[in-house]
Amino acid sequence: MNARQLFLIGTLSAATALPAVAQDAVTLKIAHFLPSVAPAQQKVLQPWCEELGKASHGRIQCQFFPAMQLGGTPAQLADQVKNGVADVVWTAPGYSAGRFPAIEAFELPFTVQDATSSSRALWQYYQQHAQQEFSAYKVLAFHTDGGQAVHTSSKPVAALKDFAGLKLRTSTRLGAKTLQALGGAPVAMPPAQVTEAIAKGVVDGSLGSWELVLPTKLSEVTKFHLQPEAGAAYPTATVLMVLMNKRKYDSLPADLKALIDQTTGETMATRFGEVFDGEAAETRRRVAAEGGKITTLTAAEVATLRKATATVDAEWIKQSGERGLDGNKLLTAARALAGTNE
Description:
- The protein is built from 13 helices and eleven strands.
- The protein is an alpha/beta fold.
- The protein folds into two domains: 24-145 and 238-278, 3-Layer(aba) Sandwich (D-Maltodextrin-Binding Protein, domain 2); 149-236 and 291-338, Bacterial extracellular solute-binding protein, family 7 (D-Maltodextrin-Binding Protein, domain 2), CATH 3.40.190.170.
């Protein structure tokens, strides 16, 4: 065999190998409801994608579709990933009211005190109590927003009486029920509309995590902020999740599945928690530096608000029973894992 024949054989071998490499590569379409500057994308999901790309030698890549660029509403993200419109979504189960009842326990009043510890607790809770309702998905992570503070434009809130008639944007049905129990008037709307609604006086402010304040420019239209003291639980919180299309995951080679498994679950939940807590601290610092007034509820004041929202717990437990769930057991488990039992 001469040199020319060897060269041709080598060229053909390389050419026939190329389709196998290309076929093995995968691009994950990742969708969520916030702008691309949101910490969830910049500090968690993008670094995760970079880690996957490096560990897989480029065989896993990501394409982001923030701010609902694939169409639809935040409430439709769970269906978009289930149906394969997106491969991965970051969203809130509470946007699909009543669809994922067991996981709602972490949104009940005064269950969440920070993002890091509650996100780890939520992942454990999911594994023990809520896997069945997510059987149609490959679940990558659950986490919380760390708790929702009260952000208002012109009406400071410092005690239970100040909630009377207060119109606030709420993100979940349990957040709305909590606000009602405190005497306020909940208004549902997507995060992207909140700032404009406050500026126009449609609402007085918003219940929202500190992490959302800067990406949504909430700090530009609110002057007053209310939060519990460190170690005390917030009036409500939002559960968030990263879901993957099950068929997409099942179609991956075993080594790529292993990479995804190794970098998600409690690892990703903890990362979200740490980022959200870090963002909260930095946001509070910036808000205070820019003249915003942050009021801190004492443990005694939190206890007063907690007593006022006991009806929300009771109603949720009753509704859970009607769905065949032991609501009292779930709520007890959630607060025990989160460290917020009374």
